[in-house]
Every structure is written in structure tokens, then in C-alpha cells.
Amino acid sequence: MTAPIVRFAPSPTGRIHIGNARTALLNYLFAKRAGGQFILRYDDTDLERSTREFADGIAIDIAWLGIKPDQTIRQSERFDLYHAAADRLRSMGRLYPCYETEDELERKRKRQAARHLPPVYDRAALKLTAEEKAAFEAEGRTPHWRFQLEDRSVEWTDLVRGPSHVDSASLSDPVLIRADGSYLYTLPSVVDDIERGVTHVIRGEDHVTNTGVQIQIFEALSGRSPQFGHHNLLTNASGEGLSKRLGHFSIASLREADREPMAVASLAVLVGSSEAVRAVSTLDELGALVDLARLSRAPAKFDEHELDGLNAKLLHQTDYATVASRLAGLGIAGGEPFWLAVRGNLSVLSDAAQWATMLAGPIARPDGLDAAFLTAALALLPAEPWDHETWGRWTAEVKEATGRKGKDLFMPLRLALTGLEHGPELKFLLPLIGEAKARERLTSV
Ligand code: GLU
Fold it and tell me: What contacts 363, CB < 8 A, 6 or more positions away?
């Protein structure tokens, strides 16, 4: 098999959400696992709703997820190709002008509904004579253009859904070009896929019907079509579809909420599968876990709590090198010993700041600490150098001297040394607090 070429084709009319990230990642992982290429294609033929800001934002979002496009193309720069393809379809007699207004089409649909017929376009425009067309044009009407479907069942072997088909006879001939000359998504997408040699079109299952139509356009223009895979869609926890327009779970908002990119990527890809609880650390590892043929067919629920859990789990196993520059960016020093001490207590990376602040002090010690006990403990505190054994040795001596054990022994020491009831293990924290601060914190005031 030649190396796959895939594309992710968002329209830059908003920021991408977790469901779009699923599409992007499934494409990327599929291509990269086989040494293929990933194209980022902006479907920005809607010049009113598409913006450069959204496009640039999407580039940032996918880069954050770890996706590195091999090429980026913009449909708004490729109209010549679409005009040429439309001309070819016209010359083949597959693209025909229609003059009905929206109102007229609506009336046709109502009449069909009254007769219990499906709302399929009746191809009346195919029967127009040259004089009738001229008369419409003289009235000031400009045509919209429909692609004439062959009335047959279009069949393909879907990478996700297996043998699939769409019965074209039950579809209206699709409008490819509006009366104002603008293109709907259908034709430009096919033209670009042909021109860029796209081998696999992996997209949401909301596009299955489009595939029936697009395969016919692929065949008309190039005699063949790419392979298709339609993955299940994501919903929110209550089962509602996600909307880019409403900003549901946008990648930008997840990043701003300090979620780990790999936690977001893992869940976007594995959601709904038995692997979804895995905190996967790299895209390579994630790529090895997905198999399009084994994706669930049912819609998958994206639950933010699940992401929270995965985020924490991932941080707990993240090594220092992976986060060093981000910690530096947050102004957090302390290096690897600090990271290894605190990572197990983080929900999000920026939580590390509160532990850095605690270590640096000053801390607020709670009231009511047992001064006599702390004085006894202080007297037994060894001199530096300290390591991870120091805490254990010291508290064994304090236990021996005071007769305290368990919570009565450890909690007052934790409260005095950190000001908090919970936190990272003290055997890691004590050397980071250091002797001078530890003595100060154990000294009653
Ligand atoms: N712009 C289309 C979308 O976002 C692309 C669909 C496709 O992948 O062909 O739905």
C-alpha cells in the first residue's frame, strides 16, 4: 500500500471542539502510523463566516494537541480549480442550471409531502428549453447548479462501518453552486481531495450521505475515489451534540483550563472504548491503540469529569523533562526533586504553584498545635544533609520519645511544617523545606 494521505478540513467559522479534535487525531494517527501525510485544509469558501483569526486559532489548537501538518491549504485560494471542475461537469452534462426560487422549491416539497412522497428534487430544470432558460434570465434570475446523480446504489467499504451504501435515487440532485456563484462544500472538497491525492477521507458519520454524493463526483471527475471512514460523533454528558458555534468543549477553553494536551487527545480518541481510562503519554502510543475498524458505532459521551481524572492520572506519571519548561514558565523552581515530590498531588499542572508557595513560605500554621510535642520533635530533628530517609528516621525517634503513633504523631508535624492537613509525602517535602525553615516552623510562636 502506498503511504496514506489524509486531510482534516475544518471550516474556520469558529474554534474547534473536542469532537473536531477526534476527527483531526484519528486522521493524523492513521496517517502517521503508516508513514503517511496529513493535510490541514481550511474549508473557507464561505467568505462571510470564515475568518483568518479562527483559522490561525485552529492551527494553534491542533499544534497544541501535537499534530504537525505536512501541508496547509485554503480553499479560498483555490477557486480556479473549482471553476475548472464545474466546467468539466457542465461539459459532461452532469451539472445543470436550475431557476427555482427557495419559495418555489418549498411549495414543491409541500405538494410532495401531501402525496406522501419523499422531498426529492423532481429535476424539472433538466427539461427546460433554451427559450425557457433565456426567459428566466431575462427576468433577472441567475441559476443555481445541480449535479445530476446516477440513480443507483453507491457502495463502499467503510474503514469504520464496513460495507456501506447510499441509495442515490432517494436523494435530490445536490446543489453544488448557489445562484450567487458561491460553492457549497461538496464540490471543492472533492476537487481538493483529487488534486492533493488524498487516499483516505476520515470524518464524522454526519457525512455518510455526502459520501454517497461525493463518490459519484469523484468518479465523474477522476474515475476513482478515496477510501472512506466515518467515525461516531461525540455528545456532551447528557447526550446532546457538540456545537462549534456555541463553543462546546473548545480546545482553546480546555487549554486555558490547564488541561494536559495528551489527556485531551487520549480521551478525544479513546472515548467510549474500554481504553478510555488510560493516561497515554505520547501520540505514538495513542496511535498504536486505535483501530478504525474497532471504533464504537454508537455516539460517545464526552464527560469533563472523566477528563479531570485522566488529567490527574497523566500528571502523576509525567517525568520532569516533559514539564520542565512549562514549570519554568509558571515561575516554579525546584527542579526534578520538587516535581517528583508534588506531581502525585496535582489535578492540573498549575496546582504546582501552590506547593512551591508552601515550600517557600511563610505559611500560616493553624491554631491549637501542641507546643510541647513540637518542641520535643524539634529537639530530635537531625542536622542536614537530608534525604528521603530523613523523615522516616526522625519520626521513628519522635515516636519513641513521645509514645505517639499514627495520626497523632504525623498530623501535628504535617500541620506545623506545611500548614495543611493534606499534601505530598513528607519524606519528599522535608528535604525541600530544608532545616532552617523546618526549625522555624516547628518552633512555637
Ligand atoms: N468542512 C467539512 C466539515 O467540517 C469537512 C468535511 C470533510 O471532512 O469532508 O464538516
Answer: 418, 419, 441
pLDDT digits (tens, 9 = 90+) for 172-212: 999 999 999 999 999 999 999 999 999 999 999 999 999 99
Instruction: Please work out whether the CB of residue 208 comes within 6 Å of at least one atom of ligand 1.
Output: no
Ligand 1 pocket: which of 50, 62, 185 to mutate (most atoms <8 Å of CB)? 185
Q: Where are the domains of the chain?
A: 5-79+185-235, 92-177, 236-316, 320-360, 371-443
Contact 158, 228 (CB under 8 A): yes
Q: In the CATH hierarchy, which fold is given to the domain comprising 92-177?
A: Glutamyl-tRNA Synthetase; domain 3 (3.90.800)
Is the shortest distance between the CB of 10 and ligand 1 below 6 Å? yes
Least confident of 156-165, 190-199, 215-224, 265-274: 265-274
Q: Ligand 1 centroid vs 421 CA: distance in angstroms?
A: 51
| Span 350-402, pLDDT tens digits | 999 999 999 998 999 888 899 999 999 999 999 999 999 999 999 999 999 99
Closest alpha carbon to 265 in 294, 287, 243: 287
* CATH class of this structure's domain 236-316: mainly alpha
